[in-house]
Automatic annotation (TrEMBL):
Residues making up the signal peptide according to the UniProt record: none
NCBIfam families registered for this protein in UniProt: adh_fam_1
Description of how the protein assembles with itself and partners: Homotetramer.
Gene3D superfamilies: Medium-chain alcohol dehydrogenases, catalytic domain, NAD(P)-binding Rossmann-like Domain
Highest taxon of source: Bacteria
One GO cellular component term: cytoplasm
Any Pfam family: ADH_zinc_N_2
Family membership: Belongs to the zinc-containing alcohol dehydrogenase family. Quinone oxidoreductase subfamily.
Annotated organism of origin: Ralstonia insidiosa
Name of the featured protein: Zinc-type alcohol dehydrogenase-like protein
Keyword Oxidoreductase set for record: yes
GO terms of molecular function: oxidoreductase activity; RNA binding; zinc ion binding
Subcellular location: Cytoplasm
PANTHER family xrefs: QUINONE OXIDOREDUCTASE (PTHR44154)
Length: 337
């Protein structure tokens, strides 16, 4: 099968940062699906792994986790899918990635693809939808609601991949007032289009920006990037007994600054269930099916913003470079080999 991989951690502009190659077709295990990959998207985790985790013994490592495709074969114990099903998923960090024509994945972290989306539009969503859903409902424990609750959520980095679906989920499924941050006119417009009640500029002090829109403090903060840079302002902006959730990797945080307000700190990592084979890992299957239903009924929309063409090393290098620039809006997708 065709695939794109890396042999060593190199700058993305190096000729061999990512390479096209041919690998043996994978074989599904008992709970696995063998999926013919039709489209993928690229996430910051792809960049983090490529730059920080060189493969052992100079063996090729295939990146990529988001995928939309068609089930070609199933393992002996599979019960949720059959060949021919269109599926979407975000894979497992400890297994080979989706930048390949064929991919194996545990059925318990796979959902049925939305019927109203093409493969490229669908591939934009699984990893970020899982992350946003778990952050909002499992970590921050925001209740589902159809009416305004009087509570507020600040999303730092709302124009990125996770932010783009988190804004939608919070607006559609909770009673929260949703405040997103963005620093450029085009990203601010994107966040408003996705449903944020307010947009503020994260290049300015967050607490001052909140006061400017008449919000002295917030109940919840979802910090999606540069948490270390914004931490002091986040602490100031949070109400006493507020909740803070983050997904990035700050080198250090003085969490003692949360004590006076009794603020709780929550970390979201969507690979936890698949990495540790938790008893509830099938919740990601149910979650993806629910998101697919919301896509099909028009409640949610795809966050695809860039289509970079076929799945090959040259186009993936372009995608990695855009993510490394911190200028990406929504999700970058590639389709077909």
């Amino acid at each position: 099968m065709k695939a794109v991989a890396y042999y060593e951690s190199l700058p993305i502009d190096a000729p061999n940062a990512l390479v096209d190659l041919t690998l043996p077709d994978p074989t599904p295990g008992p709970h696995d699906l063998l999926v013919e990959v039709r489209a993928i998207s690229v996430n910051p985790v792809d960049v983090k792994v490529r730059t920080g985790m060189p493969p052992a013994d100079n063996q090729p490592r295939v990146l990529g986790w988001d995928a939309a495709g068609v089930v070609r074969a199933v393992g002996a114990d599979v019960s949720l899918f059959r060949p021919g099903d269109a599926v979407w998923y975000a894979g497992a960090l400890q297994r080979a990635g989706t930048n390949s024509e064929l991919h194996v994945v545990d059925e318990r972290i796979v959902g049925k693809m939305p019927a109203t989306l093409g493969f490229a539009q669908a591939a934009a969503l699984p990893l970020t939808a899982i992350t946003a859903w778990e952050l909002l409902f499992d970590r921050l424990q925001v209740p589902h609601a159809d009416t305004p609750s009087g509570k507020t959520l600040l999303i730092v980095g709302a124009a990125g991949g996770v932010g783009s679906i988190l804004v939608q989920l919070a607006r559609q499924l909770t009673g929260l007032t949703v405040i997103g941050t963005a620093s450029r006119p085009e990203t601010a417009a994107w966040v408003r289009e996705l449903g944020a009640h307010h947009v503020i500029n994260h290049t300015q002090p967050l607490a001052a920006e909140l006061r400017r829109i008449g919000v002295p403090e917030v109940d919840y903060v979802a910090s999606l990037n540069q948490t270390e840079h914004h931490f002091e302002q986040i602490v100031e902006a949070l109400k006493p007994q507020g909740r803070l959730a983050l997904i990035d990797d700050p080198t250090q945080l003085d969490v003692r600054k949360l004590k006076a307000k009794s603020v709780s700190l929550h970390w979201e990592f969507m690979y936890t269930r698949s990495m540790f084979h938790t008893d509830d890992q099938i919740e990601q299957h149910h979650l993806l099916n629910r998101v697919a239903a919301m896509i099909d009924d028009g409640t949610l929309r795809s966050t695809m913003s860039e289509h970079f063409g076929a799945i090959n090393a040259a186009n993936l290098k372009r995608a990695h470079a855009l993510i490394e620039s911190n200028q990406a809006r929504g999700k970058i997708v590639l389709e077909g080999f």
